Amino acid sequence: MGEAKKRKVHTAEFKAKVGLEAVRGVKTITEIAQTYGVHPQLVGQWKKEILESAGALFETKRGPKPAEDKSGENRLYGEIGRLKMENDWLKKKLGGVSLDARMGWVDGADELPLSRQCELAEVPRATVYRRLAAKVPEDAGAEDLLLCRLIDEEYTNRPFYGSRRMVVFLRAAGRVVNRKRVQRLMRSMGLAGMAPGPNTSKAHPRHKVYPYLLRGVPVTRPNQVWSTDITYLRLARGFAYLVAVIDWYSRKVLSWRLSNSMDASFCVDCLEDALREHGRPEVFNSDQGSQFTSAAFTDVLKREGVAISMDGRGRALDNIFVERLWRNVKHEDVYLKGYANMAELMVGLAQYFAFYNAERPHQSLGYKTPASVYRSGIGGGALIVDKYGSAEVAAPETA
User: Residue limits of the Integrase catalytic domain (predicted)?
Assistant: First the structure.
């Protein structure tokens, strides 16, 4: 038998260096992982840990410490005792579950750190890391990027395609794939079929989901309704995520941000920039993605007194104006130019959105530009109506 492979241990300094490189956002997660010889999921995890712990650096205040709250301390000890009892109960139940089954519980994309997942599931971390590495052989990265490119192009044209139809499409294109792989890739890209069906929109289970407020409501003025969404953009080596805030009345892009990972921080940054530059809307609409249902995002809207609206599950047209924006961005810019890296993409998108807002005429605006309609408050509008349970958009399609 061969000698067992020793698990590679990374120092805190190394994790910080790689994580900060990801936070900078100059390179994709794939490029950073290849540069430092680590798994892409680890890069994303270290970036997330840095962002989550950054605020703690400034929490320490000078001066005398406040008096200890004994009642709060007692509640804390009570909570610890309850959690320990539940943890002991869970461990007893784990005895009848096979190792392979428990290995299946561990998900590198989950918010809970991988090391803690392994501890709770009672599986060895070294085995998990080896399996993750085995799933991504050297040539698999390029193959996954190619599949992502094909999925992205087809989804842009047919956003109602779920994983089943996407498997059929890829096999017709000569790619041998199974549904599980397509589901994984679509999940990493933040894509889900729009047609009603199971698990088409997955919110965080502990986040509040707000009702949809815009069905049958006429949008008659700028800053009445804003909405947002995230889309996947392919690059030569890796991919990026784009978020934008759009004004429904004028279709103007009020703010946008680019990131190499799909976390909430760049969405919050985009929202705050739009509020800072354009005031506040009466209603803000989004899908039920965990970035938009997170407290970090919704607390900003609550602070500004903005009504929160979220798309219904499987409602293809609830956020149709942002979906049309993504189609235009990809077909009119990204697919044509084939950006190589994050820096090129950043410059190219800045130029495109300037053109989109100030120069590109829109059919639904009477061939006026979004910037002129937003400024004048004349010539725009939108209405999503509900007839016999199916959504329709009253405004003509943007061209």
Answer: 218-378
